[in-house]
Structure formats: C-alpha cells, structure tokens
Amino acid sequence: MQTTAAVANAVPADDGHLKAKVPTDSRRRFLPGAFRNEHPESTPRLLGLARLWGVDRRALAVRARLHLPCYAGDDGRVSYRAAATVVIRNAARLRKDQRAVRDLIPRREYALSDLEFRQIGADADRVFNSLHYLRNARRGSLNFALVDRKTGAPLTLCSASPLEWKRVADQVMLQAGVSQEAIWDLSRVYSFTGAPPNAVSYMLAQVRKYFQRRSDVELLTTAVDPNLGFTGSSYLASNWQQWMTVQARPYLYYKGRYMSIREMRASFPTIRSIDELCKAERHATRSYAPLQDSLIFCCRVRGATEAVPPENQARILR
Hints:
2 domains, eight-stranded mixed sheet, three-stranded antiparallel sheet, Aminopeptidase, 13 strands, alpha+beta
C-alpha cells in the first residue's frame, strides 16, 4: 500500500503532466464511496494528498467520489491504483481551480458573528465556476452568501432559481398542492473551510426569510447526492424535510471529466441521452456501477414543513 510520503515526489511542477507512481497491486479494491468508511485504513493516505497539493481536503474528497464511478466495474469496485490516480488527477485540477479564485480563499477561520447575509453577484459565479464540484454557475440564479463584514468576501454561498425539474414539481404538486411556478430550487451550495460549522444551516434560514418577503414563492427544494458523501444534515438543521427520492442517473464523463446533463445538452444539442452520446463520441463514457438515489429536501417558505416518513416517500423514476 502506498503512503502519502511515497507520492510526495510525484507532485509535478506543471499540473498538466502527472507522473505519479501508483501501486500495481490491483487486488485491493475500493468502492466508489471508499472515502467514507469501507477502507478506513487507506482513506487518510489518499486524502492526505490534499495537504501535499495544497488543496482543500473536503473538496478533493467530493471531486474524487464524483470521478471514481468512471473506473468502477459492475460490482461497484475500483482498484486502489485507479483510486490513487483519480485523487492525484483531481488534486491537480483543484489546485489550478483554487488559483483562479485565490483572492477569495479565506486565510483564517471565522465565527458566525464575523459574517453577514447578503445577496451577491460576480463573486458567486467565480466560486461556483471554479470550486463547486460541478464547476459551473447556474445562469439566471439569485446568489446569496455569508460574507466577511469588513471585506465582503463570501465564505458560504448558495444560488437559487425557479424549479425546472418537472417530475419533482409534479410530485410536489401531488403531495403538497404547490404549483411549479411557486417553487424555487437551491442548485448550488459551497462553503469554504474557514466558515463556521453551522454556516450553511444559518444561511439557509436567511434565504428562507428572503423568500418570505416574496408573495410568489411558496416552497424551496434541493437535491442531495449521497454518492458524493452528502447527507443533507445542514438542511435538516434548518428545518427542511426529505420528501422524496429520485432514481440515480449514470454519471457522464467527457474527456475524463464529469459532465452534467445540462452541459451535455448545451454542448451536443442533437444528443438525447447519455448512452447516445457515449456511442457517438469516443471521448464520452458513463458509469455502470449502481448509484444511490438522489434525496429531495423541501422547505415551506411560510409555516412548518411537514415530515414525510421514509416508507411514505415517493421514488421518482427516470
């Protein structure tokens, strides 16, 4: 098993040339979710690369989980060699992305009293385009953040836009009687390491207060992907409730990077599905290992949000 010390000399001067030596022992296998608990003895060694590359450990873990399924077989397992390669490649990319917004990266830890809630603009796009695991800001969104009271630098951010996911909207209408026109979706959330632990839940509460001043919005939604290690705990702490799940869609990769369905449709307007793109483009591939369903959390803008027991939650199929 390779230690972090063994890869210290593999850090290249140029991010584009990765020459790290990775283990040749393919018998050790990793599940795509290996950075949680399946192989606790190896997890610190792989994520220890974050320190060597000077990148955020949490962000590296999310990006690695997003790309591990690309190398997983039908049994959902990835070799240690492939896992190490994924971590190194994503560490290099993340370091480059961090450099693009280095003026926004906090240099210290903050208390909640150091921050204030604001609606922001260009800084949010810069953060989401560089540091969010999807690496793209949602056009036409309203962006909110907890910012440094003195400098205005954002520490914890989110973006909201009218809900476009019709199947989710139809299910909400069925079980809660709220029309799609009255639903807004939180599509991006990002929090820097220097932010206080309760920053996300506090920001969510402030976002709800913002929408309470608008008569046209009744419900907020968001999708949480547990395959990336997210649980929705910050939403629960802010009195959101899980109302339903959505069948997981295979992850799509183009030229070795994750590509969202929105990006696929923008880049290949004549393509109708992931499988069609994979057949038409040699640089496109998809995951085949089973993925966990996405979790849909909801929050009523006014009044309490009712809990839905797991056994009563609808499962939306693709």
